[in-house]
Amino acid sequence: MYNESVMEVFRNPKNVGEIENPSGVGTVGNASCGDIMQISLKIENDIIVDAKFKTFGCAAAIATSSTATEMIKGLSVDEALKITNKKVVEVLGGLPAQKLHCSVLAEEAIQKAIEDYRSKQK
Amino acid sequence: MIKKPIYFDHAATTPVDPAVLEKMLPYFTQVYGNANSQHVFGRQAVSAVDKARDDIASFIGCKPSELYFTSGGTEADNWALRGGAYSDRKKGKHIVISPIEHAAMLSTAKELVKEGFVVDYMKVDEFGVVDLEHLKSIVTDQTIFVGCMMANNEVGTIEPIKEIAKIAHEHNAIMFTDAVQAAGVLDINVKELDVDMMSMSSHKIYGPKGVGALYIKNGLRIKNLISGGHQERTKRGGTTNVAGVVGFAEAFRIAMENREQNNAHVTMLRDRFISRILNEIPYVKLNGATGDKRLPANADFSFEFIEGESILFSLDLEGIAVSSGSACSSGSLEPSHVLLALGVEEALAHGSIRFSFGKHNTVEQVDYAVNVIKYEVNRLREMSPLFNAKGEIKNV
Lengths: 122, 396
Fold this sequence. Notes:
The complex is a heterodimer of chains A (122) and B (396).
Chain A: H1 4-11, E1 24-30, E2 35-44, E3 47-56, H2 59-72, H3 77-81, H4 85-91, H5 100-121
Antiparallel strand pairs in A: 1-2, 2-3
Helix pairs in contact in A: 1-2, 2-4, 2-5, 4-5
Chain B: E1 6-7, H1 18-24, H2 26-29, H3 40-60, E2 67-70, H4 73-85, E3 94-97, H5 103-114, E4 118-121, H6 132-138, E5 143-147, H7 161-170, E6 174-178, H8 190-193, E7 197-201, E8 212-216, H9 242-257, H10 259-280, E9 284-286, E10 298-303, H11 308-317, E11 320-321, H12 337-341, H13 346-350, E12 352-356, H14 363-383
Parallel strand pairs in B: 1-11, 3-4, 3-5, 5-6, 6-7
Antiparallel strand pairs in B: 2-8, 7-8, 9-10, 10-12
Helix pairs in contact in B: 1-9, 3-9, 4-5, 10-14, 11-14
C-alpha cells in the first residue's frame, strides 16, 4: 500500500524529538482517533532554524511528520505557512487515499506551532 | 541465522500443506469432470466430492447430507444468517448475535436491519466471553436466529456455545456458530454442541483458499443464498470446486489426526511468547481470555502509547508478519470492533497487534520476535508524544 519512499522515511525518520526551550509548539489530533502529532520549532529572526516532531500514529503519520519538518527547516515563518499537506505528500511520492488525512495533521501542527510562536512574540 | 520472513499470521491464512496439494493436483488436469455430469468424468469427480463430504461429516459428527460446500467462511456465514433470518417470517424478525462476530456476520446483520429485521447484540465481558445471563434476558419467543462464533478470530476467546445453544433452543430459535477458527483445533461435534448450523473454512487449516462448508441440520429449511443448478442437492448453485473440496477434506483429516500434537506445540509457543512480552515490555495489555479459554495459537496485545499499523510495518520491515486487529478490518480507520466490545479504551484499541502461530513456527522464531518487538516498541515509543524517554507517561 505504501510506496518505497514512504517506507524508507518511516523506517529512518529525521527530526524525532522535542526542542528544548522551543519558540513554538503545536499539537494536533487525539489518541482516540489514533493520531497525535506534536511539532516544536526553534525560530530566529522569523527563520525556522530547527524543527522536531513526536508522533503517535500510523506509518503515514510518522513519514509525513519527518518530511514536513525537513521541508520547513531554513524557511521563513511565512514561507512555512505555505507548506500544504499536498506538497508534503508530493515529496513522499504519494500516499494511499485513506491515509491522506494523516498528512493534514502535519500541516495543522506546523500552523499551530507558528501561531504559538507568534502569540509569544506579542 | 534465522530464516526470514517469519509468519505469525496463521489466523489470517495458512500455507497449503504439501500433502494436501498432492491430493488436489489430479483434480485439475486428470479428474477434471463436472461433478454434476452423468458420464464417467463426472462420476469420478462426484465420487471424490462424496468422499470429501463423508470425511468432513465424520469429523464434525453430522450426516453427509447435512453438509454443503461453499466458497469459504464468508459465504457460509452470509448464507446461515440470511437464510436463517428468512426461514420463518411468521415466527418473528428478531435476531441475536455477538458483537465480536466476523464482518461476514456483522455486515449481513446491518443489511437485514435495513430489510426490517431487529438485531440485538449479546454482551461480552472484558475477556470477550458472552454474558449468558444477559443473553437470557434478550432472547424471546420471537427470536428466530441466535449466532455466536465458537472462537474469536482476533483475541482468540472461546465461547460457551453449548450453553448459548440451550438458551436459543428454549425459545425455538435457530442456533448458529461460526467455527472458522475452531475447526481442526477444538471439539466441534455438532451434536454435542447442539447447533443447527455451523460454518467452516479450509484455508485456516492448511487447506486451499476459496472453499468452506456450512452444516445445516436435517429438517431445517433455509433460503438459498446462491441460485443456480442442482449442485449441493439444489441448495447451492455453482459448479463444485472439486480440487478445493478434496483439499479441504485432506487438510481437515491431517488437522484432526495431529490435533493434540499441534495444539500442544502452538500452546507452548503462545505461552512462552505471552509471558516474555508481558514480563519484558512495560505498558502492554493482553487482550482476550487466558489459558484454555483462549485459542492455543493466538496472542493479542495492546502496546500503550503507540499505534498498531506502525508496529505492524516496523515488524514487517524486520521480517516478522503479523496483523493489526483482524486482517479484514485493516484499511479501515476505525479501531477494532472486537476490542471496543471488550471495553478496551480507543487509544489502546488503536495499538493492538495479533500474533497467531502455526505448526511450522519454532521457539527460536518466538525468541527472535520478542527481541525485535522490544526494540521496535521502544523505538516507536521514543517517537510518541504520549511517552518520554524516562518512560513517564505524558498527558497531551
